[in-house]
Design a protein that fits this description.
Elements (H helix, E strand, L loop, with lengths): L2 H24 L16 H4 L2 H13 L1 H22 L6 H28 L6 H23 L6 H18 L1 H16 L8
Helix pairs in contact: 1-3, 1-4, 1-8, 3-4, 3-5, 3-8, 4-5, 5-6, 6-7
Length: about 200
């Protein structure tokens, strides 16, 4: 691995961990506007970025590195979540952490494999298909584990969350395409040596 690829690997891992921690915090807060409080949480807007990070790392560094970024992001994300978001006297908060962890790992590893299998198709096929399937798995697992039998409207929250994830997956195609070229330039860049 080149030095620029190692640097990129750590950038992706840091971005993944940060996005997970922010999303795990924001999922606790319903969107109290436009009558959406039983359908949507703020976490629905940040979490889809994890699929963008996974897909970018898969495309630029390969399947094995993408899986490592998922694992590293998971570990640091959970640690940050435990430190900043978990109230250990609140069962819902603990269930959110467990649900988030299981759903994240399952969905992201699934995303890596689906993306890798579709990588030779037109540029947008792999990210949209892998993100859609990963989002579906992630949404069902998370909301079932975190909120089933709690009185929270978890089915409507899951439906709202999945709808936003699909919208965000479509919107993420724009930065995906734009960032791919920048990442390629970054990893191919080799500084000129002085002739002195």
């Amino acid at each position: 691995m080149k030095k620029s690829e190692i640097k990129l690997f750590f950038i992706f891992a840091l971005l993944m961990a940060t996005t997970i921690a922010i999303s795990n915090f924001l999922v606790q807060f319903p969107l109290n506007h436009f009558g959406l409080e039983t359908i949507l949480t703020y976490g629905a807007f940040t979490y889809p970025v994890t699929f963008l990070i996974t897909d970018l790392s898969n495309r630029s560094l390969g399947k094995i590195c993408a899986k490592k970024i998922v694992y590293i992001g998971f570990l640091f994300g959970i640690l940050l979540t435990l430190f900043f978001s978990i109230n250990f006297s609140d069962l819902i908060s603990i269930r959110i952490a467990i649900g988030s962890g299981l759903a994240f790992l399952t969905a992201q590893i699934l995303d890596v494999h689906i993306f890798d299998g579709l990588r030779k198709k037109t540029w947008f096929v792999a990210p949209i298909v892998s993100s859609t399937i990963g989002s579906l798995v992630d949404t069902f697992l998370f909301f079932f584990i975190a909120f089933y039998n709690t009185g929270a409207p978890w089915i409507s929250l899951a439906f709202g969350d999945f709808s936003v994830k699909i919208l965000m997956a479509l919107l993420m195609l724009i930065p995906f395409r734009l960032l791919l070229k920048r990442i390629k330039n970054f990893t191919e860049y080799t500084p000129k040596t002085s002739s002195i």
